[in-house]
Amino acid sequence: MLELFAQGFANVFSPFCLVLMLLGTIIGIIFGAVPGLSSVMAIALFLPLTYGMDPGQGLSVLVALYIGSVSGGLVSAILLKIPGTPASIATCFDGHPMLAKGEGAKALGAGVFYSFLGTIISIVALMFIAPQVAKVAINFGPHEYFAISIFSLMLIATLSSGSMIKGIFSGVLGLAFATVGIAPLDAVKRFTFGTVALSDGFDVLTVMIGLFAVSEVIKIAEVAKSEKPGDVAQVNMKVKGFGFSVKEFIQQIPNAIRAALVGLGIGILPGIGAGTSNLVAYTVNKNTDKKHSDEYGKGYIGGIISSETANNASVGGALIPLMTLGIPGDGVTALLLGAFMVHGIAPGPLLFQNYGPLVYTIFVACIVATVLMLVIEWYGMRIFAKILKVPRHILLPIVFVLCVVGAFGLSSRVFDVWAVLIFGVIGYFFTIFKVPQAPFVIGFVLGSMAETNFRRGMMMSDDNFLDFFTKPIAAAFLIFTLVYFIYVVVKEIKKAQARKAASSQAV
User: Fold this and answer.
1) Residue 240 neighbours by CB distance under 10 Å
2) Confidence of residue 62 (pLDDT cuts 50, 70, 90)
3) Overall pTM surpassing 0.85 (yes/no)
4) How far apart are CA 463 and CA 253, in angstroms?
5) Which of 154, 291, 429, 499 is the 20 to 30 A CA-CA neighbour of 139?
6) What is the pLDDT of residue 120?
């Protein structure tokens, strides 16, 4: 283990890799801080640039983008009362009130420091939990992988939106697009309509770039020109340390631990992510911290600590199923899965056996990126505050050009550019009709995995599906999936009945 860590440090601390990670962290913070930009957009745009890099360097840059963008949302959440990303929604509740009370530097300092702390805790958990999970997962066969894929799809479809029907529709549509091209195992062409370009199906990166980046550009373009940049408050950053005392740090240890555990746990579950973990952790701490529960929402430092510790703790949590099972939990980890595949590496239990130095390079990169995030975000706060003043109608054309260039750079095909635009329009209609995008992406990514393992399992079982229930792990996941589906359906029916009863009473 120590030898692998030494190799990881040697890879990350090469001058070229450090410079790339420094730039990646800065760009990630900017994408997180500017409302409308996001972690997914940052990674989708810069992933094509990693093609020519060594796998360790390329993934280190993407990890830096990821960590920087998750934390960057606190800048606009505190200074503008607009969360830069969904991961910082709860930061607004107490961040801006603290700013109004003249404690802006303290709010920013707490946000930056506990973002650092939450990420470090999740990375330590990643390093200890992931190898153990991989040891168990190495014994998985087609039956287990199919069951886990279906379980993940069900969780994502039902947890990613308030509407179960829309979530399932989005996931099924993603599965449908995953069937385009040559089928696994028997190489039959499906839904190609005589077009050669469709024989390879849609590249996962064109789907990501279109669905998240281009759709966001179209959506924001509707109001960007008429929109006035928010008034960015001026904050006196001349404070001691991070603005809070050692006594306050000690008092907030229970809040930080609870938030970190919530963030880590939610990060591991597919389809929930940092966008939910910050709100859950905020609620948990508000209900648990009886002494200060009335202060939440009025400018209490514990609110910021809850949100920022939890959303950053989700980072390491989300990487656990990706690296151990090859299953992404959200759009960001789906893109990271694409990054592994671009470099010819399949995440999963064998990743730890076959690519040990790469795994520990990623661990070290996470730690280094977290330290870079802490230093850059705190000392560059004035610069990031000025970036928030740049009108989005100036930023969006640059982002759109990068989307098109990145799509063409995948295989030097104009078809990929058209695919990006098509999925951009699909993503735009998703936002109009409030259909969640995450189930589509995960359905698209997991579709091939689920189908391939289902067919392999059926071949091994002589076309007897009941054989899936003879495997303990596969049976457990399939039963969990069925039980959870029934639970959600019953819950939706009760909610519909409650709404109907409320409307009838109102009439």
Assistant:
1) 9
2) very high
3) no
4) 55
5) 154
6) 92
